[in-house]
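User: Fold this; tokens only.

Assistant: Input:
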Amino acid sequence: MSIRPWVVVEPPDSRGLRRVVIGGQQAGSAWSPAELRRILGRRGYPATMDLDDPASIFWRGGDSGTWPDHPWRRRAIMFLMAVGLLVSMVYNTVIGWPDASGALTFAQRMTGVLFVLSGAVLGIAAVAALDYWGRHQFRASGAVALLGVMMVLATDSLLLLLWFEEKEYTRHLLVYVPALCWSLWALLLLVRHKSWKGVPQPKRFAAGVVATALLTAVSLAYSTMYQPAAAPMHFSLKVEFGKAWKDVNLPFVHVPLTIHMKNTGGIPVYIINNIYTVRGRVALYSKSEGDLLTEWRESVERRGVGEGEGEVFVDQLRYTTISSGRFYDLGNSLDVGQEYAMRRVFQIPEDIGYDTLSAELQISYMRKDRGKLDVEQFRFPHLSWNERDRRYYCDPVVCGGQLIFRGRVRHNNNLINVTRKPRYVTSVWSPGGGIISSISSFPFNFVGSADYREERRELERYGTARARADSEISAAELLKSAGV
């Protein structure tokens, strides 16, 4: 028999795998005597070789009977490790892709990119876990698997912290809560097995992992908690009466009304409600000089604090709505620098008897850097008097006539979407000056004590606000311009 290199079988590692060294070079690893014989057979050793012959094999950390591997347990752990990392890979990609591909702000896009990249890292970690709990051919596979588990723990902990702000049930809870529990189990197991062993310069590796985790956490917290306010909203709104003209066939006067709107701020917006209203005012006049304070108090009691005015010679004001309508399609956006103008003509009788005519323009908007509105769902109105649409029906005696616009809104940071119930923008429009806009998770036909704190919070979260402009002209001046 020819002289062959001496075989050394190293002690079993934490998983029961024993490294085989032949002639000073690693020849493989074995879980059992049968695998050891296969390794030796590939090197020319006979199949009937005596494994207990000290002249041929040197055993360290046990003899030929020391094989502590538990194959079913090890394979079960390998399967659970790989599945947990792969599920987290898909979930992180699902969370990050909408922000990475469609968010308006740089911070939100970076959040999405980080989640997509973390998904790629988790995919690599899943392969590393298969190797670590398998043949362990790559020295760093245990450390890479540990890095992936720590990333899952960090991201799912962040999602759970965000969920605690509202404590609303969503189907996503069924993903990241079990994944968080899985990550704790996997982390304890990998730490117990000291999976970072074999990595060159483990201290630097650990420092890099910690630094990366801290930077990622700061970035995610910044983009999630910080509401961008550096670009305030500004609108240029105008509503003006034009020169009137007399109808040659009818005793009416045609009055033009010009409406103009321009986004002069730094953020595009969705216009979620708007209305223009023209009113005529009739008052009783008195030559006697009255008490201004008394007039103002009475005006406040009749019309409200926001509209109360005091005039000495004018009393018992009465307003009549002459014309009212929408001037911009609801749900459409108004980009930075974009403007829109519209000219309407309404008619009034020559002897209408109004003292003044006033026009008011109101818009309600939502910042596009805070959320994305489902425009196709939102732009088609529901009629409140349509009895077949039971969800939106309201007795005309109670509600009159209303148009109800409702659509899903998604936050531009998808972390918010996966930790909250769906939010909806609801806008109610009715002629005569009534517009209502709200954002909440309530169904439209919600009955009971609504949490108006949620509505206020969501309106602020999505950057919803109003802007208005008005104009007033003397009826005598208007009729004079028409030659009446």
